[in-house]
User: Which sequence fits this backbone?
């Protein structure tokens, strides 16, 4: 983040769009490539790549490895959205203001596009050539853990199992941490590692920040699902309530969820306080995550 950049997200989002487009297969005649392009380049907040860049700015200086890490985490996120929207999962028909991928390309091709984006994410990290091999392997392992059966995929499974139930608050927190928080945590840590740093104090502070932020992001989503319109959200509002999903709003009410969000925001900022790095970008993202309108 530079001092002259009032909104660093604009710069980071623009950089992410260029990188993502360049990383996709060039064969526009392939329907698989078209489905991948539709899902990956269909807009979105690009929070995860922005977190990569903000953490890299805090840890040192972004480099070529940072670009590949930013692309990788967004590819994983895009793949997860394709699969989450499927009829066998959340059965959504709207994503980012457009028909979901499976409605445009069919369920089979949508599944394959998600599979291909997941593979491409790890190919991006494996192609890093400006860091020691051991550090690249560490980054690959961290992303695999965050995205797989002990992270994001587990969170989706737990979320499906909790539909129609009213779990304890601790169980709901586990769902949110796995489903959303683990990839956000990986984004922050991959951003820092992409600069070549292995400074334990900084990495620990960034991990605490990311853990609070990941949960805050999902709590805000719970509130927006109840309070915002479909047109603003770009997806159907009230969907969680219609599916009888367990959310912070359903367990604590809107006021209780807002109180949790306020506390998580404070924890994000406290984790960054005194860590001796330029955390302005990370602070900006924490503010954005808890105050965003979509």
Assistant:
């Amino acid at each position: 983040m530079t001092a002259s950049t009032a909104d660093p997200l604009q710069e980071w989002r623009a950089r992410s769009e260029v990188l993502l487009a360049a990383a996709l297969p060039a064969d526009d005649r392939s329907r698989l490539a078209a489905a991948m392009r539709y899902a990956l380049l269909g807009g979105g907040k690009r929070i995860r790549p922005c977190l990569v860049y903000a953490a890299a700015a805090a840890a040192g200086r972004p480099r070529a490895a940072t670009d590949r890490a930013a692309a990788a985490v967004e590819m994983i996120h895009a793949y997860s959205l394709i699969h989450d929207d499927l009829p066998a999962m959340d059965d959504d028909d709207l994503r980012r203001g457009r028909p979901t991928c499976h409605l445009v390309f069919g369920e089979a091709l949508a599944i394959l596009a998600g599979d291909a984006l997941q593979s491409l994410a790890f190919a991006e990290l494996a192609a890093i050539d400006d860091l020691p091999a051991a550090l690249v392997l560490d980054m690959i392992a961290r992303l695999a853990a965050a995205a797989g059966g002990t992270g994001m995929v587990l969170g989706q499974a737990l979320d499906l199992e909790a539909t129609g139930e009213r779990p304890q608050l601790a169980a709901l927190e586990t769902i949110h941490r796995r489903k959303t928080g683990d990839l956000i945590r990986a984004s922050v840590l991959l951003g820092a590692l992409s600069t070549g740093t292995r400074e334990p104090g900084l990495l620990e502070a960034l991990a605490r920040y990311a853990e609070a932020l990941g949960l805050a992001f999902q709590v805000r989503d719970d509130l927006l699902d109840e309070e915002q319109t479909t047109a603003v959200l770009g997806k159907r509002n009230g969907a969680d309530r219609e599916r009888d999903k367990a959310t912070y709003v359903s367990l604590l009410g809107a006021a209780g969820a807002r109180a949790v969000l306020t506390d998580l925001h404070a924890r994000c900022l406290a984790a960054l306080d005194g860590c001796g790095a330029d955390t302005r970008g990370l602070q900006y993202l924490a503010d954005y995550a808890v105050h965003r309108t979509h």
Remarks:
- The chain has a mean pLDDT of 91.
- The CA atoms of residues 102 and 110 lie 5 Å apart.
- The two ends are 24 Å apart (CA to CA).
